[in-house]
Amino acid sequence: MSTDYRRSMKLAGRNALVTGGASGIGAAVAESLAKAGATVTIVDIDNNLLEATGRRLGVRAEILDVSSSEAWTDFVAAHDHFDLVHLNAGITTRRNVLDGPSDPLLPPLIHLTDEEYRRAIGVNVDGVVFGARAVIPGMCERRAGDIVVTASVAAFVPIPPDPIYGLTKYAVSGLVKSLTARLAEFGVCISAICPGFVDTPLIGEQARDWIAELGMPLMKTQQVVDAVTASLTRRVNGAHWIVLPGQDPILHEQATFPFPTNTQ
Ligand SMILES: NC(=O)c1ccc[n+]([C@@H]2O[C@H](COP(=O)([O-])OP(=O)(O)OC[C@H]3O[C@@H](n4cnc5c(N)ncnc54)[C@H](O)[C@@H]3O)[C@@H](O)[C@H]2O)c1
Q1: Is residue 201 in contact with ligand 1, taking CB distance under 6 Å?
Q2: Is 21 in the pocket of ligand 1 (CB under 6 A)?
Q3: Which of 48, 144, 255, 256 has a CA that sits 20 to 30 A from residue 205's CA?
C-alpha cells in the first residue's frame, strides 16, 4: 500500500482545523490537508491574509483570536465536530526579536515589556491550552481525534535571542507530554511538531542574515508539512517530530514514567 493511499485513507472526509492558517506553516498544512481530501477550516487574526489564503486554497476561513477563551467557546459552539486540529498559531515575543543575537552587553529580558510578555504567552501558550480544552470533549466523546501542536526545536534547545519564545515552546511541549496518557485512553492522539528555522514571514529580514551566519539553511514549509503528515498517519501518542534541514522528520518518543494517569 503506498504512503499516499494510506494518507488519503486517514484524511479524506475528516474535518480539520488549522490555527494561524492564513500564513506560513499553517497555510501549507491546510493546503496539504485539503489536497488529501479533508474538509479544512483555517482560523487566524489577520483578516486580509485570511481571506486571501482561504480563497487561494478553497477552504473555509474564519477570524479567531486563539488567545481568547471566550472566542474558542463561541467558535466550538458554532461548528460541527473537528476530527483533526492543528494548534499552530504562534509569534515571537517582539517583531524583531530574532533579528540578531542577544546584546552581549545587556542582561537578558531587560527590554521585555509586560505587554509583549502577555501577548507571547497569550498566543503561544493560552492559544494551545484553550484550543485543546475546546476540542478535547468532543473528541473524547467520539473516542477519536488527532491534535497536533506546533512547538519548535526551542522545546529542546535554548534560543537566547528570545527566551520567552523558548519558554512558550517548552510549555506546550510539557502540555503535550502530560495530556498524552489520558487522551490515549479515549483514542485521541496528541503530538508536537518541532521545526528548526522555516522560511515564513515569522523570520524577518535581519534574522535571515543572522541565521545564514549561523550556517543554518531555512527550510521550506513542505518539510513541516511532511512532519505533520507523519504525525497524523503514524499516530505516535506524545511524539515530538523534530524537523531539521534536509532530513526526514525525526521521531522523538516521550519517556514514560510510572505515574497513575487517573489521579486528578
Ligand atoms: N518559522 C519558523 O522558523 C518556525 C520554527 C519553529 C516553529 N515555528 C512555529 O510555527 C508556527 C507557525 O509560524 P509560521 O512560521 O508559519 O509564522 P507565520 O507568521 O507565517 O504564521 C503565523 C500565523 O499565526 C497568526 N496568529 C498570530 N496571532 C494569532 C492569534 N492570536 N490568533 C490566531 N492567529 C494568530 C498570524 O496572523 C499568522 O498568520 C508558530 O507556532 C511558530 O512559533 C516557526
Answers
A1: yes
A2: no
A3: 48
